[in-house]
Design brief:
With 354 residues, this protein is an alpha+beta fold. It has 2 domains: 162 residues, no CATH class; 167 residues, Reverse transcriptase/Diguanylate cyclase domain (Alpha-Beta Plaits), CATH 3.30.70.270. It is built from 10 helices and 7 strands. It has a 7-stranded mixed β-sheet with strand order 2-3-1-4-5-6-7, sandwiched between helices. Helix 2 packs antiparallel against helix 3, helix 4 runs antiparallel to helix 5 and helix 7 packs across helix 8. It is elongated, with a radius of gyration of 33 Å. The chain starts with 6 loop residues before the first helix and ends in a 10-residue tail after the last strand.
Length: 354
């Protein structure tokens, strides 16, 4: 971060990084964001007190020294000029007007000017070294104050960014969680609504996942969730594709600007990718030889009367339709789709399996 970043601009930049609160944000995460907010405000207040205090102290020191200069027998004009330069450099540096390089350039220029005054006999050698030390002190103290604040504020921004990621990311799979999905979906939905592009939801649920947890243990169950998440990631190539874990073993994929054929192929690819993990099915999950997922698809072009939650519920119901139809399959518009097979027409079920 640049040293000459204006103070108010920096604070505005920090506020943009702060996680925005939504209804689904975890209470602890929101509390943590508020705590970081307060810490940054406290550090800003402390910095303001520090730079105002330092400025007042140096100002008082100059008000005492300058009247004594004639008594000490030096030519006041040149010394006052040097002291004034030191004071101005200090003020501009702690106010983030000058960068390190600019302040250093001014300091070197003041030393050169004083050296010229020394060679012409306008100031004594003793005063020359006193002024050098005075300017050097003002330079390094101001850089220390500004540098400490930048370091402290940068650490707070880093912490805030980490907190933001934690608030939007599922810890286990490193996919978006519900809160992250809501924020990403809001942007995707607005885009598709503005340009009248179709948007599609793919809801995937691991078949008989409870039996894997009960048989293999929760640690191995978590490992299976990670592998399934990685498999889904490999199927989503576009930067606009949104992937999230929205439940225990439920995953949601949101695809913008996609037609029915492409979204069906995407769902088939996800189904095949999970099967390709070759995770042996448990004894109670005798529907297939390996781990599988049941998938529901829904698509629409966003309108004023069509909400994202409606499309989500439609995909969720289609996923349960796939479960009711034997699992390890895909349900789309009441039809069942097998991996790499054509759509098989089938009557929609009236009762779904939870």
């Amino acid at each position: 971060m640049k040293r000459n970043l204006p103070f108010r601009a920096f604070f505005n930049f920090w506020k943009k990084l702060r996680p925005k609160g939504t209804g689904s944000v975890d209470h602890k995460q929101k509390k943590g964001a508020d705590r970081i907010d307060q810490q940054v405000k406290n550090k800003i207040k402390a910095f303001n007190r520090q730079r105002i205090g330092s400025t007042v102290a140096i100002g008082l020191l100059l008000s005492i020294l300058i009247p004594l200069l004639p008594v000490m027998g030096c030519k006041c004009l040149f010394v006052c000029y040097s002291m004034l330069c030191s004071f101005v450099v200090f003020l501009l540096t702690v106010a983030f007007v000058l960068s390190f390089r600019q302040a250093l350039t001014l300091y070197i220029q003041s030393v050169i000017i004083m050296a010229v005054f020394l060679t012409t006999g306008n100031i004594r050698p003793g005063f020359f070294f006193i002024l050098i030390l005075l300017n050097a002190g003002a330079f390094f103290i101001s850089q220390k104050i500004a540098g400490d604040f930048i370091k402290s504020a940068t650490e707070e921004v880093s912490t805030t960014e980490r907190l933001k990621n934690e608030a939007n990311t599922d810890f286990l799979t490193q996919l978006l969680n519900r809160n992250g999905m809501e924020q990403a979906l809001e942007t995707a939905w607005a885009f598709c609504k503005r340009y009248q592009k179709p948007i599609g939801f793919i809801m995937a649920d691991i078949d008989f996942f409870k039996s894997y947890n009960d048989t293999l243990g929760h640690i191995e169950g978590d490992n299976i969730l990670k592998q399934v998440a990685d498999s889904i990631k490999t199927c989503c190539k576009r930067e606009t594709d949104i992937i999230g874990r929205v439940g225990g073993e439920e995953f949601l994929i949101v695809l913008s600007d996609i037609d029915d054929k492409r979204i069906t192929e995407m769902a088939q690819a996800v189904s095949l990718a999970v099967n390709s993990l070759r995770i042996k099915a448990t004894e109670t999950s005798n529907h297939s030889e390996f781990l599988s997922v049941s998938i529901g698809i829904s698509t629409a072009i966003p309108q004023d009367h069509i909400l994202a939650i409606d499309l989500y519920r439609k995909a969720d119901f289609a996923m349960y339709h796939a479960k009711s139809s034997g699992r390890n399959c895909i349900s789309f518009n009441g039809n069942i789709v097998k991996s790499r097979e054509k759509i098989v027409a089938q009557e929609p079920v009236k009762e779904v399996i939870l």
